[in-house]
Every structure is written in C-alpha cells, then in structure tokens.
Amino acid sequence: LSEIQWAAFVLLCVGVTTAQLNSS
User: Fold this and answer.
1) Rounded Cα–Cα distance for residues 5 and 18 (Å)
2) Rounded Cα gap, residues 10 and 1, in angstroms
3) Does the predicted TM-score (pTM) go above 0.85?
4) Where are the alpha helices (DSSP H) in 1-24?
5) pLDDT for position 7
6) d(Cα 16, Cα 9) in Å, to the nearest integer?
7) CA distances to 1, 2, 3, 4, 5 from 20, in Å
8) 9 CB contacts (<8 Å, ≥6 apart)?
9) Rounded CA gap, 22 and 4, in Å?
10) pLDDT tens per residue, the chain (24 residues)?
11) CA distance 7 to 22
12) What separation in angstroms does the CA of 4 have from each of 19, 22, 23, 24?
C-alpha cells in the first residue's frame, strides 16, 4: 500500500473507533 492508502486506512479505523466509543 502507498502512504496515502495507509493514512486513509488509519483515519477510517480512528473514525470507526470514535463512533463506537461515542455510541456506547
């Protein structure tokens, strides 16, 4: 993967984790 793809993947994981923490 390229650096941009890794950055997008990390941001996605952070967003999902944040959403789960906020909903619980």
Assistant:
1) 20
2) 12
3) no
4) 3-23
5) 98
6) 11
7) 26, 27, 26, 24, 23
8) 1
9) 27
10) 899 999 999 999 999 999 999 987
11) 22
12) 22, 27, 29, 30
Asked if 19 contacts 11 with a C-beta cutoff of 8 angstroms, the reply is no
pLDDT at 8: 99
Residue 11 one-letter amino acid = L
Residues making up the chain, counted from first to last: 24
Tokens read off for 17? 């984790």
| 1-24 CB burial, b ≥16 within 10 A, e <16 | eeeeeeeeeeeeeeeeeeeeeeee
